[in-house]
Amino acid sequence: MLQLIASAIDDRTARGVAAAVSRLVRTGELPAGTRLPTVRSVARELGISPTTVSEAWRSLASAGAIQTRGRSGTFVLPPNRLRQSLRYARLTASPATLPHDFSTGVPDHDLLPDLAPALRRIGDTRLTTSYLEEPVLPRLEVVLRERWPFPPQQLTVVDGALDALDRVVGAAVRLGDRVLVENPAFPPLLDLLDTVGAVPVPVTLDGSGIEPASLAAGLDRAPVALLLQPRAHNPTGISMTPERAAELSAVLGAHPLGGTVVVVEDDHAGEIASAPPVSLGGWLPEQVVHIRSFSKSHGPDLRLAAVGGPANLVASVADRRLLGPGWSSRVLQAVLLDLLTDPATARVLAGARREYARRRDLLTAALAQRGVDAPAPDGINMWIPVRDQQHAMLSLAAHGIAVAPGTPFELDPLGTDHVRLTVGLVRDGFADLADLLADAAGEPHRSSGRRLRTLRRTIR
């Protein structure tokens, strides 16, 4: 057992040890129920610190791969992970019990277009005559291509951004592959990479997107893919600038391994983002898969996202869907087409963009007046630094406010605790909410009982 584990490890960091053991678990070489060697014996065999092995074991335990049972030892768990072990499940601990739930990351329903007129206009149109028809309505594909940030070789439609990520990752990433991921990142994406047995490698962000030097260093790890959010990054709100997209494309082009990396862009905010569309596909069209979601802009229940990029990858996604759902509802595609070409809907979306920007600006300014630097440059979320995450969440919960913890977003610790607040759901009471957020963040600010009562009446 000890020899098997040692022979599988070529990276003796905590992350490398965890990744190697995870691969052994997933391939069945370490079957469920196997008792693992002690931390000290593994450390001695590998010539590393027991602390490094302990950290690896903690990572595996948090991922649901192993479990320590006191003096009985540490054992491999069955592959069917419990929902509670997922990062995604930790985002909303108890929203149902709190009246002001700002933890969800969903758009304000009242700022979405009304679907009823579109449904009436498409009527009872029969849109499917064969199960082997193309997965995208022809007219919808024309409209999508007109709006794409670069000319994609092929384009298809799937059931939302997460479905797109799942299918693209499934086509491009294999067990043990390294994948570059923004830090912080969207928790379901990290869960997805863990599920396929990939090794996420963090790259850092600044106000313009991924830092070029961090990308260059990450490419030295021989990754197969780079996953990024080009606009309204969740949770930070950062949107990549065109200049940064050009820099990152140049880094990929100059690196000996850069030409083999598949770039997957998750443009989840779509048409509610204030920043214009941007993509590395303008420079590297044969490497970039761009995903455009319509959930936050046109409606989560449309369950639609478009995927465009290299023909080999997009065709692989479309072909695999033939063995599952086949295609995304053409009725919903017809609704989306109507919305995309309807001038009234365009006005609604423009109003939503302005309103989300107004809410971001008001809360950002109110927090700045209270000593909290929490910029929210785009989208519907705000990434708020706090002295202690647990204290902040409990403090806000005491006033009926739910926010998402920051740790599920972190691939590597950021050095400062954070919480994510969906500022797009805050309609009023910005000054009062800022008082509570400042107190929770560790920047005390006077707030009277009258102000708190006003807050409860005015914010959602």
SSE order and pairing:
Elements: H1 2-8, H2 14-27, H3 39-46, H4 50-62, E1 66-68, E2 74-76, E3 100-101, H5 116-122, H6 138-147, E4 154-158, H7 161-172, E5 178-182, H8 187-195, E6 199-203, E7 205-206, E8 209-210, H9 212-219, E9 225-228, H10 242-254, E10 262-267, E11 288-293, H11 295-298, E12 305-309, H12 311-321, H13 330-340, H14 343-369, E13 382-386, H15 389-397, E14 401-402, E15 404-405, E16 417-421, H16 430-441, H17 449-458
Parallel strand pairs: 3-14, 5-6, 5-9, 9-10, 10-11
Antiparallel strand pairs: 1-2, 4-12, 7-8, 11-12, 13-16, 15-16
Protein name: GntR family transcriptional regulator
Keywords: DNA-binding, Pyridoxal phosphate, Transcription, Transcription regulation
Pfam families: Aminotran_1_2, GntR
Keyword list:
pyridoxal phosphate, PyrdxlP-dep_Trfase_major, Arc Repressor Mutant, subunit A, three-stranded antiparallel sheet, Aspartate Aminotransferase, domain 1, WH_DNA-bd_sf, single chain
Structure description:
By secondary structure, the chain is α/β, with parallel strands linked by helices. The protein has 3 domains: 2-81, Arc Repressor Mutant, subunit A; 93-108 and 345-458, Aspartate Aminotransferase, domain 1, CATH 3.90.1150; 112-341, Aspartate Aminotransferase, domain 2, CATH 3.40.640.10. The chain has 17 helices and 16 strands. α7 packs parallel to α8 (187-195). The longest helix is centred in the C-terminal third of the chain and has 27 residues, at 343-369. The N and C termini lie far apart (55 Å).
